[in-house]
Amino acid sequence: MSETIGFKDWAVVCDAMRRGRQSLILRKGGLAEGRNGFQFLHREFFLYPTAFHEQVAKLREGSAEGLDPSPEERSEIVVRTAFRLEWATSIEDWAAAAALTPFHLYRDEVVRERFAYDDAPGLQVAFGRAYRVEPAWEFASQPSFGGCRSWLRLPAGAPPWHQFEPALDDAAHAQLSCQLETWLETHALTAHRFV
Length: 195
Prior knowledge:
alpha+beta, 4 helices
C-alpha cells in the first residue's frame, strides 16, 4: 500500500471480519464525509476498531457470541484486521438490502435505519476479504482519529501485507463470492470492481 489507510467500524464488526464471520461492509457514511458523501475510496485498508457501547445490541441475537466488543476509549489503538475490497455497489432498493441478511450480523432494524438515513434512501455495499494482522499493530491514538467519518490516515510503520493470514480459506471465500455475485445479478446491480 502506498499510504496507510484506516476504515472505522465497530470493534465487534472488525472482530467478526477477522474471524471470517462477515465479509461485507454496509455503509451510509458519517457526518463529516465531505461534499460527495461516503465513497469506497481505497482498495486496501486496515479496520480501525471504534468504541460504541451499544454495538453488541445492534447485532442479531446470538451473533456476537465469541466476538470482542472492546475497545473502550484508550490511548493505544490495536489493529487486528486488514481488508482488501473486491467490489462495491450502491443500492437504492430496500428488497436488495433485505436480501443481504444472510451475509452480515446486523439486526434488520439497524440496516433499515442506515438505509433510510437522510434524504436519499440507500446504502453503499462492499465485498472483500479480511486478513488477520498477527501480531496486532499497536500505535498511539491521536486527536485526528476522532470525528464522524469513515476514512483515516494512520501512522507509518504498518506491518507488510504479505504477512497477513486470510480470515477465510480460498474455498470458503470463493463460495461466498459466488453467492454475492448471484445477489448482484438478482437485483440487477452493477459493481465497481477493484483490480
